Amino acid sequence: MTTYPNCKINLGLHIVDRRPDGYHNLETLFLPVHDLCDELEINLLDTSGETTVTQEGIPLDNAPQDNLCFRAWHLLHEEFGIPAASILLRKRIPFGAGLGGGSSDAAFTLKMLNRMCGLGLDDHALQRRAARLGADCAFFINNQASYATGIGDQLEPIDLNLDEYRIHIEIPEGEHVSTREAYAGIQLASRQPRPDLREAIRHPIEEWRDLIVNDFEASVFPAHPAIAALKEDMYARGALYASMTGSGAAVFGIWK
Q1: What is the DSSP string of 181-232?
Q2: Of 136, 153, 215, 231, which one is the catalytic site residue?
Q3: pLDDT given at position 188
């Protein structure tokens, strides 16, 4: 069975506060983007086999057993005793870019195995399990525009239609931003008040530039001026709205 896990972008991202467990509460708008996808192929094996993960495409810096696809399989195997599987992942979504590629791979693995093994888990049950694999994973279960709070796992679907617009994603050559680096530079006390994201997106896209902000830009741009320059270049090329997504390094622009 083969499917195509897509990436996401963040239409704004507010860091609210730091939690006692070390994570941060946030507010963001997740938007799926289907033009950039990985390819995920899963085949179930007989009881004598062992689960393997083969990675092709963009090289990853982790061992196959550390891959989120393997962790997703292992989660269901531990709970339901699902059989071993051969997993082939062809990476096209860059990692360390704020596009949620690994989270999407994990969520799609859960959804595929749920169908293939006849587990009968509904979306809510899948989301609970996906949240154990990563903060963004739950979003990719329903895979629809959503307002997210908590660590990104509390989701509220929103009505947002951008069919008349083109979304283009770029990453400056050689740029990579780790989540740890992005959070390390956050200054919660110095932030200015921001409009509610759910209210802001009701305004014309031409006004988003003055209403919607990604808090990570304040910490990432000084250390990675190429990312800041790419955002400004998108505006120079006529983008109606441009922003870094997630913790970077990817930048997206929206054109009519």
Answers
A1: HHHHT--GGGPPP---HHHHTTS-HHHHTTT--BTHHHHHHHH-HHHHHHHH
A2: 136
A3: 66
Q: Provide the pLDDT for residue 64.
A: 67
**∠ CA 130-144-56, rounded to 5°:** 60
Please indicate whether residue 256 is annotated as part of the active site.
no
Q: For residue 11, is pLDDT > 60? A: yes
Residue 2, helix vs strand vs coil: strand
Q: Write down the domain spans for the chain.
A: 2-157, 166-255
- 226 or 163: which leads in pLDDT: 226
Question: If phi over 0 gives left and psi between -120 and 50 gives alpha, with beta otherwise, what is residue 22?
Answer: left
249 cis-preceded (ω within 30 degrees of 0): yes
Whole-angstrom Cα distance, residue 105 to residue 4?
Answer: 9
Per-residue pLDDT at 21: 79
Kindly report the pTM of this predicted structure: 0.92
User: Is 136 in the active site?
Assistant: yes
Residue 156's pLDDT band (boundaries 50, 70, 90)?
Answer: very high
Query: Where do we find the tokens 């990604």?
Result: 214
CATH of domain 2-157: 3.30.230.10
Please, are residues 219 and 199 in contact by the beta-carbon 8 Å criterion?
no
Given pLDDT bands bounded at 50, 70 and 90, which one contains residue 191?
A: low
Options 3.40.50.300, 3.90.1750.10, 3.30.70.890, 3.40.640.10; CATH for 166-255 is 3.30.70.890
